[in-house]
Design goal:
- The complex is a heterodimer of chains A (294) and B (371).
- Chain A has 294 residues and is mainly α.
- Chain A has one domain.
- Chain A contains twelve helices and two strands.
- A two-stranded antiparallel sheet of chain A has the order 1-2.
- Chain B has a single domain (47-366), classed as Orthogonal Bundle (ABC transporter involved in vitamin B12 uptake, BtuC), CATH 1.10.3470.
- Chain B is 69% helix and 2% strand.
- Chain B starts with 15 loop residues before the first helix and ends in a 5-residue tail after the last helix.
- At the A-B interface, helix 4, helix 10 and helix 12 of A face helix 5, helix 6, helix 10, helix 12 and helix 14 of B.
Chain lengths: 294, 371
């Protein structure tokens, strides 16, 4: 029972990282109808920025700074590589972001180099005892940070002018344009938000461990998450993220009893889950069903 | 029946057969013949290491044609090409492997058996994936096929009885035909010369087959689905059926390419079939020109020769290092180039290298007038 609870809590920790990443994907998708395969690169860039900033200004200042820097990077990418493609088929833009991902990741990897880099978080691998159950502090921190950010985002979308503009543009771009919404600004803010979220998510993914080039694979796990939650649903991204995180940790704990699956099967459980979800419910748990008009 | 066409009127067609002809103008017939002869003569002109690279290019072109059929012609974005290449490579290697070896081997060393088998097993995998493809469109499909790459990599890494295990690998299929080895150095030719001729011959067979498929009823169905799948469905194209066919044919090509790809180097490990391999094939199709066979071939050669080009570039740009532990090194430049070239071509010349050729041709067609 303790084991089960502990893996559930661990799952919530990794799940909140996935939720943050998935929110980035969904925000971009809602604004531009494109899945940005560049998110892994932004996440890695954010983490590496934190590892460089943290020794200088401390962890707490480094994370928001890195988030802003990554947001600016995402903004730059949107402006140069994605904006010229407005109106072109979504998959062409998606492939462009794939190209961006490959190119940016090489540059970022060069900054990681051969050193062992740490984000310099205050939690490391310390644990917190909740009765008989132990939870790692970094997982708790990830849950808290995700809760705060998600709350902030929902307030942003609900109560600010820009949030309203973004919801309007997501609903109907042309109508929003006709009402004076600057759709270009919506695109820019969406990409910047997604970049910032990716940087924060990456920091929590790397907390308590070292930063290496393979970290980007974590960001790809957000793809099954958004398929599960529905491509255009923000609550879906959060619920899906937590669900996938919990499922993954449960598999990691219990899959060793099933020898033929091989080691590390938990890495691919999100993808297997995704295939099942797509066969049963192609638009995810909360996604809008695509209407085909002839 | 072939009617003679008036000279100087290359666009005047008087029958459907003429409209569908493979090489419909004298210029195309001549240039194709010249290109083939030049390619056949290459082994006498080039050094062996370059020939080996070109042989890899021929095989990559087979794989790229496969991806071009499903992505370029049928418009179904597949990021899972590495998965099908892997299935082909392991099927062929397992069939032709040594029965007493460290890894699974059945001792069927004849290329005439393992090549089609590799293609068919990969095609079967493609048909298994197709139900997802017929339900999904566009980006959903891209994500699913991306998931396939990860699931495939896990299976390849863990099934070490077949694959030799991560970081270790296994020998590739053996090139033998009717009991005679196809690629060994002897008095007449070196191994690399023979390899190049063999792969070139296979490429021609696969390319002509793909071109024929593309101009048939099936190919027209593919392009109809790509251009507007609802409209295609309305005019009577059976969408599930043709999407399944597209995936099956594409996977067949990928399987054959995967089987052949590692016979050149002789050894491969499960780490090869990563997302980067899929991205490389996407780059081949997009840089070459989506929706054309010759574009896919051009793109495949371009991407295969790219590492070599960046190494040559190093002589001109001295700050690029050849040492993998220095920054920036050729390996980084190479990977960045994949990414940047994809972006640049998609933004500025969506028709790829083939589009550049069309532009040049049209310019000289009207020369010295600008239109």
């Amino acid at each position: 029972m303790t084991e089960l609870t502990e893996s559930l809590l661990r799952g919530l920790g990794t799940g909140s990282v996935y939720a943050l990443l998935a929110l980035g994907f969904v925000i971009i998708y809602k604004a531009t109808r494109v899945i940005s395969f560049a998110q892994p690169a932004f996440m890695l860039a954010g983490v590496v920025a934190v590892t460089y900033l943290a020794p200088a200004v401390g962890f707490w200042a480094a994370v928001p700074l890195a988030a802003v820097l990554t947001g600016l990077l995402a903004l730059g990418v949107e402006r140069t590589a994605v904006r010229p493609m407005v109106g072109r088929p979504a998959f062409v833009v998606a492939i462009i972001t794939l190209g961006v991902d490959v190119a940016v990741r090489v540059v970022v990897n060069a900054f990681i180099g051969l050193d062992v880099r740490h984000v310099g978080d205050p939690w490391e691998l310390r644990t917190l005892a909740l009765g008989p159950v132990e939870m790692q502090q970094r997982h708790l921190a990830a849950v808290v940070a995700a809760a705060l950010l998600v709350g902030g985002l929902f307030a942003f979308f609900r109560f600010t002018r820009m949030g309203l503009a973004m919801r309007a543009a997501a609903l109907d771009q042309e109508a929003a344009l006709a009402h004076g919404v600057s759709v270009g600004a919506v695109f820019a803010v969406s990409w910047a938000l997604a970049g910032g979220l990716a940087a924060v998510a990456g920091t929590f993914a790397a907390a308590g461990a070292s930063v290496d080039a393979a970290l980007w694979l974590i960001a790809l796990t957000a793809l099954p998450v958004i398929i599960l939650g529905g491509l255009d649903s923000l609550p879906g991204a959060v619920v899906g993220g937590l669900a996938v995180g919990v499922l993954q940790e449960l598999t990691a704990t219990y899959a060793n009893d099933v020898a033929w699956l091989g080691g590390n099967v938990s890495v691919i459980t999100p993808y297997v889950l995704m295939l099942v979800v797509l066969l049963v419910r192609p638009y995810g748990l909360f996604g809008t069903r695509e209407v085909e008009r002839v | 029946m072939r009617t003679s066409r008036p000279r100087g009127r290359p666009l005047l067609r008087t029958s459907y057969a003429e409209d569908l002809a493979l090489l419909d103008t004298p210029a195309k017939r001549v240039s194709t013949a010249v290109l083939l002869v030049a390619a056949l003569a290459l082994p006498f002109l080039l050094a062996d290491d370059l020939l080996q690279l070109l042989a890899v290019g021929c095989v990559a072109a087979i794989g790229a044609i496969g991806l071009g059929l499903v992505t370029g012609y049928a418009g179904q974005v597949s990021l899972g090409h590495a998965f099908f290449l892997g299935i082909g490579a392991y099927t062929a290697a397992a069939l032709s492997g040594d029965p007493d070896g460290r890894v699974i081997g059945l001792g069927v060393t004849d290329i005439a058996l393992w090549l089609p088998a590799a293609g068919l097993v990969a095609a079967a995998a493609g048909v298994l994936v197709a139900p997802l493809a017929t339900r999904l469109r566009g980006l959903y499909l891209a994500i699913v096929t991306l998931g396939l790459v990860f699931i495939g990599q896990h299976v390849f890494n863990e099934w070490s009885a077949l694959t030799g295990g991560a970081g270790v690998g296994r020998p590739a299929a053996t090139l033998e035909f009717l009991g005679r080895p196809l690629a060994t150095t002897d008095a007449t030719a070196t191994r690399d010369q023979k390899l190049f001729w063999l792969m070139l011959a296979l490429l021609v067979v696969f390319a002509v087959a793909a071109r024929n498929l593309a101009r048939s009823r099936i190919g027209r169905a593919f392009t109809a689905i790509r251009d507007r799948d609802i409209a295609a469905g309305v005019i009577g194209v059976n969408l599930p059926r043709y999407k399944t066919v597209a995936f099956a044919v594409s996977s067949f090509y990928a399987g054959c390419a995967g089987a052949l790809l590692y016979t050149v180097t002789g050894f491969f490990d499960p780490g090869s079939f990563s997302l980067l391999l899929s991205v490389q094939y996407i780059a081949m199709v997009l840089i070459g020109g989506a929706g054309t066979i010759s574009g896919a071939i051009a793109g495949a050669f371009f991407i295969t020769l790219l590492p070599r080009l960046t190494r040559e570039l190093q002589a001109w740009v001295p700050f690029i290092s050849t040492q993998p532990n220095e920054v920036p090194n050729v390996f980084q430049v190479e990977t960045i180039l994949y990414g940047v070239l994809i972006i640049v071509f998609l933004i500025f010349e969506p028709r790829g290298l083939f589009g550049l050729w069309v532009r040049a041709r049209n310019y000289w067609k009207a020369w010295p007038f600008s239109y």
